[in-house]
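Possible regression after last week's pipeline update?

I re-ran a chain I had predicted before the update to compare outputs. Posting the input and the new output here so someone can diff against the archived version. Not blocking, just want to make sure nothing changed silently.
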Amino acid sequence: MTMQISVFVPEFGVIEAITPPFRTFQTANEFLTVFGKTPVFTVEYVGLQEYVPANNGEYVIKTNRLLKHVAETDLLIIPPTFGDTIKGIQANAEAIPYFKKLYEKGSCLASLCIGAFLLAETGLLNGKKCSTHWAHVNEFRERYPQVEVEDGAIITEHDNIYSSGGASSLWNLILYLVEKFSDRETAIMISKYFALDIGRDSQSQFAIFKGQRTHGDDAIKKVQDYIETHYQDKISIEMLANLVHIGRRTFERRFKEATNNTPIEYIQRVRIEAAKNFFEASRKNVSEIMFDVGYTDTKAFRDTFKKITGLTPIEYRNKFAKVATEV
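New output (post-update):
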């Protein structure tokens, strides 16, 4: 049984995300042949026009079929657009009804990175979970409040709709789909061939925390400024509420609505972001950095660090430090 894989080539698409699924499923066929098995994938590029520019015109991709001529397919893959997400949505608005129609006829849909924005435009993600690039989570939540974003997730699957986290996370979803629709042996061979980590399940270690600033609550922005410049000090909720002359309960509610974090979560994320920077650039040991970012309890620091990044402080330092340090 052959499975039809259609890779949508979006207007203003990202070439580094468009070609990987096409090449991977083609390579899967080659490995299946080597294993004495029958190739199972038929792979094609589809788009709104025959020739689609990518990366601001640096490349041009020739599609095999126009999207409007695709009556059915087993899996439609939606790569991200290049640059501004809203411009990407506007440029590909014509494709949205076709995505929805194919899903309703039984096709699986898979978005890569911020291709989730195009997928969410269909309304098919409402009430479902989704992954996208960690740097666009706040923007995604604002535009699609009915979708539950899996912050930090590499892969999300819900009712035959798949999505991946940011950048290289798309490879993890592609490998997952290869395994799901062929077998694990083929997926492992591809992971080795392309030198990919088949087991990674979180993009948290790569995330850079930037507090939500697009809200219009000036009082909360003042508190954010205070936290980000005094994170190493002892900070209480009462202190922050008093800073802007707001009752505690009202302050906590407004802070959560504005930033998508509780005040405590925000303080933790700011402190851990500072710790990450220290681990990357300094020779200080874990205890020194712990105190520098406002923690006095070693276990609390280690637990919070791992919860947010997915790595222990030592693991993070070994992976990202510019100069290796013995601790």
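Follow-up from reviewer: compared with the archived run. The first helix runs from residue 15 to 34. Marking as no regression found.
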